[in-house]
Amino acid sequence: MAPESLTDNRFQPGSPRIAVIIPLYNGAKYIGQALDSVFAQRLQPAEIVVVNDGSTDDGPQFVEELAARYPVRLLHKPNGGQSSARNFGVAHTTSELIALLDQDDIWYPNHLEQLVRPFLLNSERELGWVYSNLDEIDEAGRLIARCCLRFLPLPNPKRDLFGCLAMDMFVLPSASLVSRKAFEEVGGFDETLSGYEDDDLFRRIFLAGYDNFYIDEGLARWRIYSQSSSYSPRMAASRMLYFRKLLSEFPDDPRRDRYFARDFLAPRFFPAFVREYTNALRYGDRKAVRTALDNLVFVSRRHKRKARIVMALVLPFLRIPFLPRTLLPVMPGVSPMMRRLLR
């Protein structure tokens, strides 16, 4: 059921035009399902653009054949990642609102119909984006969890910077509708990021003073599996890039007792770097182990005092060749203990 605020009569006449942007990179397996979900929308978009980001499979050919029967534009560019593909697609459209869809995700038929409604309300604060909850599915499309964001301790909608920094925002592109004005004002996606680029975009739109609206209803299906971009090496590298970007953008302010690195950023990112390290050990990737360990050291030095002490005690053992790998069987029990120690 739609929230009460979306069922009143405070609507402006007419509906803004919507452009759908789908980045495509070796996504032949799922792109048909994604596009079918666009064609099935009760509120049809004005523009549908698929950006071939240097694919080497037959995904672009499939879209090209589909474009002969449906109003889809296929654009081509060299591979540069999702950020550059999305920016490229947005630059080739003119609609007032931008609907982002990943190649392996699926919209429910009421997706655009529901997300556009808050943009039609009379409000004193200009909306930058509207987003919703979503259902998690696996590689085969089987339902894993309905409204999966309810299982996370997330503040929705976003109301303060500190919440945006202390944890991942989980404003998923496939579950969002973005104002073109806001998107262009902040410069679109940061093309140096191939992970956390969505978090970065919506944080900058928030900082620019735009409001956001959250619908606690699953309006899309989010496909999570081991080959998805969330688990790619690019994501791991981008995590450190984003951490460093946030450190640079939000230096500590002792006079106001605001220690962004210690209180927000390091506690947020440290567990992810621990997971990267244990995964690198598990797969025997020595280069990845060294990189992950360097990242752990870098982040821990900006963590709270207890975390710095624990890391200083553990680090000499982690640097002993082969020793960490022998501890892999007990790693599942070590992680909860580490979380307790680092509180």
Written description of the protein model:
The protein has 343 residues and is of the alpha/beta class. The chain has two domains: 222 residues, Spore Coat Polysaccharide Biosynthesis Protein SpsA, Chain A (Alpha-Beta Complex); 91 residues. 41% of the residues lie in helices and 16% in strands. It is built from 13 helices and nine strands. Strands 1, 2, 3, 4, 5, 6, 7, 8 and 9 form a nine-stranded mixed beta sheet that branches. β1, α1 and β2 form a beta-alpha-beta unit. α8 packs antiparallel against α9 and α9 runs antiparallel to α10. The N terminus is likely disordered.
How would you briefly describe this protein structure?
The protein is an alpha/beta fold. The chain has 13 helices and nine strands. Mean pLDDT is 89; it is low at 1-12.
Just name the CATH architecture of the largest domain: Alpha-Beta Complex
User: Which segments are poorly predicted (pLDDT under 50) over 5 or more consecutive residues?
Assistant: 1-12
Structural class: alpha/beta
Distance between the termini: 39 Å
- The total count of strands amounts to 9
Largest sheet: 9 strands, mixed
* Beta-strand residue fraction: 15-25%
Helix content: 40-55%
CATH class wording of the largest domain: Alpha Beta
Q: Radius of gyration over alpha carbons? A: 21 Å
Instruction: Note the overall shape.
Output: globular
Question: What would you call the quaternary organization?
Answer: single chain
The total domain count is 2
Number of helices: 13
Annotated CATH topology of the largest domain: Spore Coat Polysaccharide Biosynthesis Protein SpsA, Chain A
- The averaged pLDDT comes out at 89
In CATH, what is the homologous superfamily of the largest domain? Spore Coat Polysaccharide Biosynthesis Protein SpsA, Chain A
Q: What's the order of the H and E elements? A: EHEHEHEEHEEHEHHEHHHHHH
